[in-house]
Every structure is written in structure tokens, then in C-alpha cells.
Amino acid sequence: MSISRRNALLGATAAAVVTGAAVAPLAMKAALAGDPVIGLSDQLRAASKAWFSATDTFEDATHRVNINDSYYSGLVSVKTPDGRACWGASEIKAAAEDGRLHHRLTPDERDAALAELERRQREYPKKCRELGIEPLRQAREHWEARFWDLQARLLDMPATTTGGVLAKLRGFYNAAEIADMRTGGDPDTDLPVEFTASIYRDLERLAEEARS
């Protein structure tokens, strides 16, 4: 789920972000639903709201203490034969692979860029502690990790009902996008291939069960 969709996903309170209250009643909802995928989808939606709410809270804090979050955010500026590029670890590693024609890095340049990336990531928690915003950074990291864990579990879990298949769609799209799609509108973001594959497998299996 993309950060650009934040406005559609916001809504969790600050208390829910810190305490996890946003997901407290979901176990009972899942039990009543009869398909575990439905409860897991609800948890994913709650986690996404908490993540983006925590992100906004943390970003507000970084602006208040005048720290540049993008400097530490997992990207580093790298000088390449084609000009400067802003890359994360995977792009840096790929740029040094044999046979690459563009944005090529030598092994030494790759290692230097990765070392700078690691240095910034080690320094960031210390800097946030000094400025008194480390708990907010940890809350953001917690909900981000929680979101990706729930999404992976949702995609791996077979839906046992058509309601479960629908819940997978709702795990990605927010209510406004779902309402728009019902009337023929385009969602803000294309459904990722991993969601498409998981939903197709569910529909194929349910159709086969219906025929048997």
C-alpha cells in the first residue's frame, strides 16, 4: 500500500497507534465471520490506518525539531556514470552486477554506498533519542512491520468463502475506492500482482469446489 494513499487511510487515533486499541475487537469479529481471512483483512486495514497515523505524527515531530527524515530513510545519493541517483540497498547492489550497462557501480563504489546507508541507519535512533522523538519513530516502525506481516499472512491464507475473497480486496482498497469501483470508477492504485494472484487462486479453488 502506497504512502501516497495516506489521506484515504487515516483515521486511527493517537491512542490506538500507541496501545493497539484499534485492533482489539477483531478476534471476535473474525470468529463471527466464519472465514479467518475476513478477520485478518480487518486487522490489516486497522494496521494500515495506525501506520499512516503514526507516520504523520512522527513527521510532524521531525519538522518540529528540524530533523530531515529523508536523510535517514533508507536512501543515499550515489554518483554514477549517468549522473547522481538516489538509491536504496537493493538498487545499489544491482548497479554493481555484471553485465549492467547503465548506472554501473564498481564494487568499491557499491560497498562505500552501502556503508554510508548503514551508518545513517545506525545513527538515526540515537539522533531521535537526543531530540526526544524516538518513541514516535518506534511506533511508526512497529506499525509498518505489523502491516507487512499481516499482508503477507493475508495473501498466504486461502479464503474459504466468497466473503473472504472480497475481504482480500478490502484489505488493499479503502472504503471510498471500493464505492467508486462499484460504479465503474478507477481506484487510486492498481491492485498489486501478489493480491491478484492470491484472489485468483481463491476464486479458482472455490469454483472447483462448487462444481464437485
Question: What's the structural blueprint in terms of helices and strands?
Answer:
Blueprint (H helix, E strand, L loop, with lengths): L5 H4 L4 H6 L6 H8 L2 H30 L10 E5 L2 E5 L1 H7 L11 H25 L2 H23 L5 H11 L2 H8 L10 H19 L1
Antiparallel strand pairs: 1-2
Helix pairs in contact: 3-4, 4-7, 4-8, 5-6, 8-10
Number of helices: 10
Radius of gyration: 21 Å
Count of strand segments: 2
Task: Note poorly predicted spans.
Answer: 1-24
Observed structural traits:
2 strands, mainly alpha, 67% helix, two-stranded antiparallel sheet, 2 domains, single chain, 10 helices, disordered N terminus, 212 residues
How does this model look, in words?
The protein has two domains: 1-66 and 134-212, no CATH class; 68-132, no CATH class. The chain is built from ten helices and two strands; from the N terminus they run ααααββαααααα. It has helices at 6-9, 14-19, 26-33, 36-65, 89-95, 107-131, 134-156, 162-172, 175-182, 193-211, and strands spanning 76-80, 83-87. It has a two-stranded antiparallel sheet. Strand 1 (76-80) and strand 2 form a beta hairpin. The radius of gyration is 21 Å and the shape is globular.
